[in-house]
Q: What sequence folds into this?
């Protein structure tokens, strides 16, 4: 009997305004990560052990500054995409609004792809909890439940939550847990 489970790989987009914390999120993660040089883009491979076997994410971090944001770019960057993490800044309401626009575009191209919303900079949050409504609005528009997490990259809080939620949705295992121990 072969006890080695084959690693499943998913292509994932990390989407969000300039300065919301995308790069620091990927670098502060406690998970096993390799960065690959791709011109003008940040491209990472994350590996996780889960209670349903090993999972890898090829994560493409979209850099607004270099490219702008059009439908053509989305299609070129992510010809196949299995999931997306949409990130905004909990101390900057405009970033939540802009993320809504981006995720709507994304959803037109990848209508059934799992999406998790992630508010970063919980440590300096200024947006009131009642105004953290993006996930609800998108969920109503798309007719499915969208989960949102508040995290702080700076304080190392909740960094596994967006990954765990997304992997649950991409694999269909609602009881999935990441069990990777912090990288040695
Ligand atoms: N207070 C606080 N600051 C944070 C947090 N996460 C990131 N930052 C700061 O936010 C700024 C932007 O972080 P980046 O990771 O460069 O943001 P980015 O989304 O990659 O930005 P671009 O690459 O320019 O699109 C940096 O000065 C970070 O130190 C957080 O959780 N709390
Ligand atoms: Mg960056």
A:
């Amino acid at each position: 009997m072969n006890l080695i489970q084959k690693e499943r790989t998913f292509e994932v987009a990390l989407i969000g305004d300039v300065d919301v914390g995308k790069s620091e999120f990927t670098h502060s993660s406690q998970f096993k990560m390799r960065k690959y040089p791709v011109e003008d883009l940040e491209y990472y491979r994350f590996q996780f052990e889960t209670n349903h076997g090993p999972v890898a994410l090829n994560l493409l971090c979209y850099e607004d500054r270099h490219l702008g944001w059009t439908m053509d770019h989305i299609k070129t960057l992510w010809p196949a995409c299995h999931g997306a993490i949409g990130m905004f800044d909990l101390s900057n309401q405009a970033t939540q609004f802009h993320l809504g626009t981006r995720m709507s575009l994304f959803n037109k191209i990848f209508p059934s792809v799992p999406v998790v919303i992630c508010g970063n900079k919980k440590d300096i949050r200024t947006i009131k909890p009642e105004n953290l409504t993006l996930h609800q609005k998108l969920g109503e528009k798309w007719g499915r439940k969208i989960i949102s997490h508040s995290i702080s990259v700076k304080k190392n809080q909740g960094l596994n939550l967006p990954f765990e939620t997304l992997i649950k949705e991409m694999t269909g295992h609602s009881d999935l847990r990441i069990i990777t121990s912090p990288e040695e």
Observations:
- Residues 8-180 form a domain with the Rossmann fold fold (CATH 3.40.50.300).
- The helical segments are 22-28, 64-67, 71-77, 93-109, 134-142, 160-171.
